[in-house]
Automatic annotation (TrEMBL):
It is a multi-pass membrane protein. This is Oligosaccharide flippase family protein. The lineage of its organism: Bacteria, Pseudomonadati, Bacteroidota, Sphingobacteriia, Sphingobacteriales. The keyword Protein transport does not apply. It is found in: Cell membrane. The chain crosses the membrane at residues 12-33, 45-66, 86-109, 121-144, 151-175, 181-200, 220-239, 251-270, 297-320, 326-347, 359-378, 384-401, 413-433, 439-461. Keywords: Cell membrane, Membrane, Transmembrane, Transmembrane helix.
Length: 475
């Protein structure tokens, strides 16, 4: 039995958790750009990129191990030992890396002639990263207990307080870029007590080397794949900067940002589904649960993707200046790669549940290699369309491999291809045919298309939306 109402409410809550930080960042952008220079934004962007790599290395994907292993131990005491041991190991490992970074980074900055001082920017960025990493396991505790409200309360309150304090320090006290780093840090520190309370309730702070060995055996194969995924996300910008104008790069970046808003749905579903998959994995009815979740996951992704694609022009008209308007043409094609990547995320969860995490890492590395090589070849010829094609191909290769390696009663592969083609080309075809003026009329027509597409998807995946209001659903 799966509480379908809880599934829906958790998805909504996780969606709110994804939307609110993005909305706050968007609202604060025009304010902060008034008080920070372009050089300061460059420093912030650079340190953020470096810390993204460091975060992946320091977290070691151990949160995924907790999610997978938590439901395999029966007693409360064993679960507390699992949570406490993994957290304690992360705490000690990150403490060691914190010292190493402080000793090594100044020399690296000097050696590579990076025009950013270690103090205060890298120093503060490293410290903030330390607190972000130790928050991983306490937040996972909310997820394994399917406590979406608690998760959102903690993560959102932290985010809102950080933005508020950054605004105060930068705007009111004129601290400049340092105010941004200190704003995050001053909120990170007291939240340690929130994490400590979670660990007090749900974990035994001890080192069980058997658990550590098992956790590392599970998580280390995932590390190269995680790093490769970051490379996939960044390589197109590196190549595009060399082969297209800054104006074109700006248009592409805005279009890419809009396409990535689909990650709100993807991450919300992922945070909801992952604990359920791992919890039900060893149960006799797992494949029925898996099929039901897979169909719901795909349907929501495809419907959300089509909505963003079909209304992309209206979003650009309302939210951007006319200089960026042509970017709406790129959004439907960019969304395809986001949708395929989102589908891969579900398949990866199944592979990890089946103890095939090495395959996840290998396929991600393969995708990274394809991405770098294809960008090198296609971008000089096709510009940002080369980057779009590269992204689609690299994720599609991984999708095909993973589809063959996981078992799902009905994979709907052909249905997905047809839906992706509709998402890519129907918005473009619409704009070619309906060239008349009138924003309101266009919104009405596109809403009709959206309803028709959504209905088609629900029929294909045999989903009755009326069942979403039922309290319990046997699957």
């Amino acid at each position: 039995m799966l509480n379908n109402k809880k599934f829906l409410s958790n998805t909504i809550l996780y969606s709110i958790g994804e939307i609110v930080p993005r909305a706050l960042a968007l609202l604060l952008l025009p304010i902060l750009t008034t008080y920070l220079t372009t050089r300061e934004y460059g420093i912030n962007s650079y340190t953020t990129s470096v810390m993204t790599f460091v975060f992946v290395i320091t977290s070691l994907s151990l949160n995924t191990y907790i999610l997978k292993q938590y439901y395999k131990v029966d007693s409360i005491e064993e679960r507390k030992n699992l949570v406490g041991t993994v957290f304690y190991f992360i705490l000690l490992f990150n403490g060691l890396l914190l010292i190493i970074q402080y000793l090594v980074f100044p020399s690296l900055i000097s050696f590579f002639k990076i025009n950013i001082p270690f103090y205060p920017f890298f120093w503060l960025a490293i410290l903030n990263n330390f607190f972000d990493v130790i928050a991983i396991i306490p937040l996972v505790i909310y997820r394994v207990n399917e406590n979406a409200k608690g998760f959102i309360l903690v993560s959102l309150s932290k985010t809102i307080l950080q933005y508020a304090l950054v605004l105060i320090l930068v705007v009111h006290f004129k601290y400049g870029l340092e105010g941004s780093y200190y704003g995050r840090l001053l909120v990170n520190v007291p939240f340690v007590f929130v994490y400590a309370y979670q660990l007090y309730k749900h974990g035994n702070l001890k080192l069980d080397f058997k658990i550590i060995k098992s956790a590392l055996r599970f998580s280390l194969p995932l590390l190269p794949g995680s790093i490769s995924y970051i490379l996939i996300s960044l390589s197109d910008r590196v190549f595009l900067e060399q082969y297209i104008s800054l104006d074109e790069l700006g248009v592409y970046s805005v279009a890419f940002t809009l396409a990535l808003t689909l990650n709100v749905i993807i991450q919300a579903l992922y945070k909801t589904i992952e604990p359920i998959l791992f919890k039900e994995h060893n149960q006799p009815n797992f494949q029925n649960v898996n099929l039901r979740l897979y169909k719901s996951y795909l349907a929501l992704l495809l419907i959300g993707g089509f909505g963003m694609a079909i209304f992309s022009k209206e979003v650009f008209i309302i939210a951007t200046s006319k200089n960026f308007l042509m970017g709406y043409r790129l959004v439907p094609f960019l969304i395809i790669s986001v949708l395929i990547s989102g589908t891969n995320l579900y398949l990866d969860m199944l592979l990890i549940a089946n103890n095939k995490q090495k395959i996840v890492s290998y396929t991600t590395i393969l995708s990274g290699i394809i991405s770098v090589l294809a960008n090198f070849v296609l971008i000089p010829i096709l510009g940002y369309y080369g980057a779009i094609i590269t992204s689609i191909v690299s994720f599609l290769v991984v999708n095909i491999i993973c589809q063959r390696l996981v078992f799902i009663k009905h994979k709907y592969f052909l249905s997905q291809i047809v839906a992706l083609l509709l998402i890519a080309f129907l918005p473009t075809l619409y704009e070619c045919i309906f060239t008349f003026e009138g924003l309101f009329i266009h919104i009405l027509l596109k809403t009709s298309l959206f309803i028709a597409f959504s209905t088609l998807i629900l029929i294909i995946f045999q989903i009755d939306p009326r069942k979403l209001v039922k309290n319990r659903l046997a699957i």
